[in-house]
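Hi C.,

You asked whether I'd gotten around to modeling the 182-residue construct. I have! Everything is below, sequence then structure, no commentary in between.
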Amino acid sequence: MLLDFFVPGEVGLVIAGTAAAQNGTPLPGVIAAAALGAFAGDVVGYGIGRRFGAGLSERGWIGRHLAPALRRARDHFDRRGGATVAVARFVGALRAVVPVVAGSAEMGFRRFAAWAVPAAIAWSALMATIGFVWGDAIADVVDRAGLLVSAVAIGVVVVLVVRARRRRDVSRPEAAASPGPR
C-alpha cells in the first residue's frame, strides 16, 4: 500500500510483464495477480482511513487542523469520489493516499470498490502489457514518467495547501490584529 512512496508500482509491474514475456508466463495471470494486489492495497488504505481518519479529527491539535480538511474531503468524495479513486490509481503520489482519504471521508465501500476494481484491472493490464510487449526498453521511460507525474502532483498539493493557508490567514481578523511574538 504505502510502498508506492518508495518504489513506483508501475516499474515493478512493467518488470513483471517483461519477465513474463521472457519466461513464457501467460500475461492474463500476471494481470490478474497485479489487479488483485492493487485492489487489496486499496482496501487496506480504505480500511485504515475508515477506522482511524474520523477519530483523528476529534483529537486536540491535530483535530483542529484535520477537521476542516476532512469536511472538504467528504464534500469532494460525495461529488467526485469515484473518479478521484479511479484517476488516483494512475498517479503514483496519489495511489497510496486517496484510498485512506476516501475511507476517512466515509465514502461507501461499495461505491469505492465499484471504482477501485476496474481502475486496478485497467492499470494492471496497461502496465503489465507495456512490459510484456516492449520489455526492458520501456521500463526506464515508465520510471521517469512516474516520478515526474508524482513530483507534479506533490507540487500541486503543496501549492494548494499554501494558497489555502494564506487565504485563511488573510480572512482571520485576529491574525492581522495580533502583533506577533515579542
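If it helps when you're writing up: The longest helix spans residues 136-171.

Thanks,
B.
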